Predict the 3D structure of the following.
Amino acid sequence: MRETASLIKSFGDFPETRREPRIAEISVGSWDGLTHVDIDARWPGRLDNTTPFDWFFRSPDSESYDAAMARVKPWLDSLEGIVLAVSHGLIGRLIRGAYLDLSKEDALGLPVPQDVIWRLAKGSVEPIRVG
């Protein structure tokens, strides 16, 4: 994220960047860096009935969806004026989901293309293609 923020700053005169812990990526705890095969070998059945979007919250020591939303929503509520935020994919889904007041399933199913900046304004979310 720091590299992305630095790249963005190279295009204009922006205020100093600062780290915002309320939109830090969600940790999957002891599953960080493991493949699904590794996870299934160590925690048999834990990934059963998961989707490509909700398995993150099945780790025995990961942050829960509700806990992550409990930090994202107050951050959104605190924003004033124009804000440029850089985040990773999963927390980006939660930010957009919270902004649109989506269900957990709908928020987790939001796309995370690598060539898009999301504009959140006036109650809508609009993709801006950058590639």
Remarks:
- Residues 53 and 109 are 6 Å apart (CA to CA).
- The longest helix spans residues 65-78.
- The chain has a mean pLDDT of 91.
- The helical segments are 2-9, 36-42, 65-78, 89-100, 104-108.
